[in-house]
Amino acid sequence: MRELDYVSAARSIGARPARVMFRHILPNMLSPILVMMSLSFGGVIAVEASLSFLGLGPQLDYSWGSLLDQGTTFTWVTPRLAILPGVAIMFVVLGSNLMGDGLRDYYDPKGKRS
Fold this sequence. Notes:
By secondary structure, the protein is mainly α. It is built from four helices and no strands.
């Protein structure tokens, strides 16, 4: 990013390196970093839940994948034991993705804010 035109222009008018970093480079890097972090968080939750469901994750009784696995043994008696952990996983992954999208829109330097 330091070789882009707007950074070169800021340097050519005599801006100090700290000003270039905090005024030009960091605002343009913040949006992609936040989106990557939120998508990675949702992916990590989904991977942990799927590995725990298969019995390959941490051997804890209270992880969402383990709760989902335990609920499938009683699916015909009480289906909510399998549905509730799955819905919780879905809402956390969806919420982290929506939060990342909202943060990206808020911190986007090219977006129009009033």
